[in-house]
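Re: [ENG-882] Designed sequences occasionally contain unexpected residues at chain ends

Forwarding the minimal case from QA. Structure tokens:
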């Protein structure tokens, strides 16, 4: 007879061009991104802190083992995607955390994307230098 409680909780997080698939396993410890420990993958301290903030807000730093697979984007975008994925997975684990995570701003997907370069211009917005002639 199968147990009704799932052994893991899955969620997806996105930021810029990065997509993170996050699994949390209750009752275990550890944190890996793309098979590497967090300090080895995210070498900047501010990115490590960004990824761990939803857990600290939910007071669940040592209650879960977290496994994340991240593709696309740069390190900052990937860290933001993992953070959103963790917050969403925590929500699936316990719906009562919604107000806490919402107050911290962890459930809002940052919609900002890079603007495309337009034809006839030097960049997304940069035009050529004006000369009066």
């Amino acid at each position: 007879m199968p147990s009704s409680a799932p052994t893991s909780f899955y969620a997806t997080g996105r930021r810029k061009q990065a997509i993170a698939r996050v699994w949390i396993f209750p009752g275990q410890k550890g944190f890996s991104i793309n098979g590497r420990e967090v300090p080895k993958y995210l070498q900047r301290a501010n990115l490590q802190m960004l990824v761990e903030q939803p857990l600290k807000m939910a007071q669940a730093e040592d209650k879960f083992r977290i496994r994340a697979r991240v593709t696309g984007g740069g390190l900052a975008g990937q860290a933001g995607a993992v953070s959103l994925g963790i917050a969403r997975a925590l929500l699936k684990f316990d719906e009562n955390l919604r107000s806490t995570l919402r107050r911290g701003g962890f459930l809002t997907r940052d919609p900002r994307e890079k603007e495309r370069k337009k034809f006839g211009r030097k960049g997304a917005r940069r035009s050529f230098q004006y000369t009066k002639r």
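QA comment: On inspection the terminal residues look reasonable. The chain has one domain: 9-104. Proposing we downgrade this to a documentation issue.
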